[in-house]
Each structure stands twice: as C-alpha cells, then as structure tokens.
Amino acid sequence: MASTTPRFATTPENKDNTGRVITYDFQTPAHAATLAVAPKYFDTTVKLAELTGAVTINATTTNAYAGDILKFLFIADGTNRVVTFGTNMASTGTLTVTASKKATASFIFNGTTYVESGRAIEA
After folding, report:
1. Model-level pTM?
2. pLDDT higher than threshold 80 for residue 21
3. How far apart are alpha carbons 113 and 88 in whole angstroms?
4. Which of 99, 44, 32, 94 is nearest to 73 (CA)?
C-alpha cells in the first residue's frame, strides 16, 4: 500500500517526520465465537471481554502498513478457553488461556499478514 505520510522516523517525499501519524487504538469488544478486528493504526490493543467460550480471531489488512503492531489481552472465566488466530494471522498455533488466568499475544504486520511476535500466559 503506497502512503504519502511517513510511518517511521524517515521522511519520504519530504513529508513530516514528527511522529504525528504514529497512532494508537484500544478496543474492548464483547466475547463472540468469531471476532473480526480491523486495525487501522500503528499500534492497536484489543482487550476482549472475559472469555466464556472458545474464540476465533480474524484480522483485516485493508489499512495496515508493514511494521504495524496488533496486541491482544485475554482473561478466561473459570474454565480453560481456546483462542484460534484465523484469517490474515500467522500464529504458532492455538492459545489456551488457563481458567481464571490472563494471557497476551502480539503480532507485527509484515506487509501481507500479521505474524505472531510473542505470547505470554499467566502462571
């Protein structure tokens, strides 16, 4: 995707490099069996409501730029819950969030898909 605004510290085409276009977003969707996220900012954090069942997360890439960050925060109810990363997400596999515990997963957009860069599960 071609852009006339800079996304990093370089200044293509003599454009501003003050960081004004580095934007952040925080989303808090309700739990659903399938969740579609549409990140359109440099850094998007998605904190799902308490997981009460399995969830599959799909991401759109329409407004994504290489290097964009997508992070997820999870908390399970009293049962182990499985998170599956689907469309446009290259992960290391499903994530099982232990009952009554928290977990995170992070992704970086490589120009085509969001690639998992890390995950953590509360002990």
Report:
1. 0.83
2. no
3. 5
4. 44
User: 11 lies in a domain?
Assistant: no
CA 10, CA 29: separation in Å to the nearest integer? 34
Is 104 contained in some domain?
A: yes
How do residues 27-73 score in pLDDT, each as one tens digit? 999 989 999 999 988 999 999 999 999 999 999 999 898 999 999 99
Is there a contact between 98 and 59 (Cβ–Cβ < 8 Å)? no
Provide the CA 1 distance to its chain's centre, in angstroms: 19
Answer whether 11's CB lies under 8 Å from 39's CB: no
> Measured between alpha carbons, how far is 99 from 4 in angstroms, rounded to an integer?
46
Residue 90 pLDDT > 60, yes or no?
yes
CATH number at residue 63: 2.60.120
